[in-house]
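Please review the protein record below. Let me know how this chain folds according to its tokens.
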Amino acid sequence: MIIAIDGPAGVGKSTVARLLAARLGYLYLDTGALYRAVAWKTLQSGIRPTDHESVTALLTTTLIHMQFRNGAMQVLVDGSDVTGELRTPEVTATSSIVSAIPAVREWLLPIQRQIGQSGSVVAEGRDVGTKVFPTAPYKFFLEADAEVRVARRHRELVTAGRGGTVETTSSDLSDRDRRDRTRSVAPLIPADDARFIDTSTLSPDQVVEQMIAAVSTGS
């Protein structure tokens, strides 16, 4: 069983996916963490993320592995656990750029699908319903008002000790939206059979309840 969750940044995908996986006893797959891992190594290697040729060449000497311990996902790059280093603003910005490189997406595709074959999975991230797991029986596309998304993202950054102004968060989110929606490779679009949920006025638990209801009834 695979449940795919997609949507723009700030709609609560990660929070909801983790809660849903815990409720169902499934593995939680954050596909975005894999792109962040590539971004992390790109930065560590001193390569400009816009240099597609160099980033692509870097993949030939890179080993990315995901493992699960007590239900928590860990990301290893070349054998080192870098999970705690993947949410910095620098990695976030870089991941949005390298994820638009076709070679990166193709290289990570089998890694994601291999995890999907390891058991029941709640997969969250860009194009999980359109390309990674196109035959997933349950696909959800989350949406939310722009102001709500900015507020949520800003709270996340403040909680992580990487605050900044709301205006900066809004600008960064707008830039990311533009890149995600207009890029030629894996743009931000819902799967044709995805179920839409507007999370603007819903708590994460309420969103999860809607998902569980859909899964349990097969609707």
Observations:
- The longest strand covers residues 64-69.
